[in-house]
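Recap slide: CCHC-type domain-containing protein, sequence and predicted structure.
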Amino acid sequence: MISKQAEQAMALLGQGFQLLGPVLSHLVESEKAGTSQEPPCKKKKKMGKRSAENRLRHIQCLKCSKRGHINRDCPN
């Protein structure tokens, strides 16, 4: 006889396989087609030079309270 916990675990495992099925089939199909691209939601945006400079403008050092650098790069 299977315990109630074992039955619950098996049910959860079955649900997990149902959720993974479409993902795995997508991966298999993309490998067969030779286009192993990540789904659009997983693509990372490349940070351009301007956006990196813009980000530095907003960073504030906790040591000297000036903008444009962090503690480890503080000139003081």
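Helices lie at 4-33, 49-58.
The two ends are 71 Å apart (CA to CA).
(End of recap.)
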